[in-house]
Amino acid sequence: MMNHRLKEIVSRRVLPRVQTPGQYLGGELHAVIKDHHEVRGRLCFATPDTYAIGMSNHGMQVLYQTVNAMPDWLCERVFAPWRDMEDALRREDLPLYSLENFTPLHAFDVIGVTLQYELCYTNLLTILDLGRIPLRSADRKDSDPLVIAGGPCVQNPEPLSAFIDVFVIGDGEETLPALCRRWLELRSRGGSRNEWLRTIAREFPFCYVPRCYRLECTADGTWVRVPQEEAIPKVVTPAVLESFEDFPIVTRPIVPNIEIVQDRIAIEIMRGCPWRCRFCQSTTIKRPLRYRGAERIVEAAWDAYRNTGTNEISLLSLSSSDYPQFDALIRRMRETFVPHGVAISVPSLRVNEQLRTLTELLTSERHSGLTMAPEVALDDMRRQINKRIRNEDLLEGCRHALERGFSRFKLYFLCGLPGEREADLVGIIELAEEISRLGRAVRGKPATVTASVSNFVPKPHTPYQWHPMQTREYFDSAHRFLKCRRRMSSVQVKCHPVESSLLEGVLTRGDFRVADALEQVWRKGCRFDSWTDQLDATTWWHVFEEVGVDVRDILHREREFAEALPWDHIGIRQGRMYLERERQKSVSDMVSVLGGK
User: Distance between CA atoms of 198 and 232, rounded to whole angstroms?
Assistant: First the structure.
């Protein structure tokens, strides 16, 4: 039921004083409005970033549709308010509310949080506090909502373990409804919050409930999580959506009120990746490989287009060009949509021999650019990271793309990988400039090439999780080298901010002790840390020092196989031994690379 009083106050006294008030109003096309009195359960899906970013998250649309398809449940949305909106709500002593019904967050049964990147963690605390939900799980009463979290960042849940009641590991389409129903059943039977959470930990092997594990310090000084009773698993196993091919595709996505970052129809064509790049966390946590049939994808895309009028469709997967029916799919998509002026985008093209013919299937009518991720510039380093691509295929694919009318290329590279040499940095510039010169040979003028360079962070559940991260000094030096080496004005080098990468490293590799620092920096005003102009890195580093978080140990110390890692109680399908074998292979390949420099 709509909270008309709260909506009236917000509309009259708050929204006239904030930027982009449309993001706080709701009422979008295809938003689902249900009466709270006509359902048994209420979930609010929280994205700890702005509306413009959160509404670009395809996973949000999927889970929103999934829960609202349950006749006895509703799902509403909330996003992190920008600083002016937060200040206004606090000034007026108003709670943060859901967009659909202006319901304060504390009135929901469950708050579901998606954690897509680590630098959104302070925004999560803002959402909880403004929603009048106690920050820490230990302080919540029986009447408070269950706070659950999923997404890539839960691969190391420990930095948020003080604030989240339940972490859901793996796919959420089937697990989220099951968990919501069970929570409601447990509360209806009476008892205490502790008892309900213990039941969740026992019954759902894909759920990590921090309060059901105790902390033990090992002989080498590292901390490990140990179940408090035998019925609770030592290692939490990820949930897998086996019915991916048949699971409903979103064909009535919410159409945003304002411009968002990715304003397009998104269709997930494949989940998982057939490759085993050693730097990539997604290739381990998204297995097994599953895909949908081409005709079903085309039909769903057509329904979504008719329901929204959106003039771009994005085919999503970790490596879209590895989709088994890719050629047939693209041809069918073009036949269906190009006559209607709808562009087809493929955001994750793999650089292999297929790229030579792939551009014939794509169109430059709307977008004249292609985005690819060679990761490194030299073939021998690619063998070390297990990225099985060749510059020969990349260059030939770019040539074909230029002939088809493409004129801009964006290439993603990594800086700071184990065993990186000066030659690898030189290779980034030389490869980018060679592609630009191809433009002159084919089209009579240089192609525009952007080399986007990210700083490598060794992520949990990858073969590089034992490796140290490079230092601030190394990254600063490498960035200067890259920018000084560039000679062509048609080539741009964009390097990811070093401070952001280092902070990401602490938040993705740290243990439970990071939680105290996180709360302190939030109380000191840190918000929207993924935004370069908002990040206050100095405050973060000072607070880490104050609370005793050893940043150098977390980031720059190499681990041994025998050492416990903060995320060892979170499992992957392949198991830890797979990661150990791949790490040993990478070291062997690295020796080969360095020996040949």
Answer: 8
Structural domain count of the chain: 2
Residue 383's nearest CA partner among 277, 283, 481 is: 277
pLDDT band at 435; cut points 50, 70, 90? very high
Closest CA to 192 of 133, 143, 139, 134: 143
What is the spatial distance between Cα 461 and Cα 466, in angstroms, rounded to a whole number? 10
Give the HSE-up count for residue 536: Cα atoms under 13 Å, Cβ half-sphere: 16
Question: Alpha-carbon distance 565 to 502, whole Å?
Answer: 19
Provide the token pair at 592: 């080969």
pLDDT digits (tens, 9 = 90+) for 244-267: 999 999 999 999 999 999 999 999
Residue 476 CB: number of other CB atoms within 10 A? 12
Whether the Cβ atoms of residue 281 and residue 155 lie closer than 8 Å to each other: yes
Give CA–CA dist 197/178, Å, rounded: 14
pLDDT band at 368 (very low <50, low <70, confident <90, very high): low
Q: Which of 365-374, 528-537, 556-565 has the lowest mean pLDDT?
A: 365-374
Domain span holding position 12:
4-227
Residue 62 within a domain: yes
What's phi and psi for 379, nearest 5 deg?
Answer: -65, -35
- Residues with Cβ within 8 Å of 581's Cβ and at least 6 positions away in sequence, in order, are none
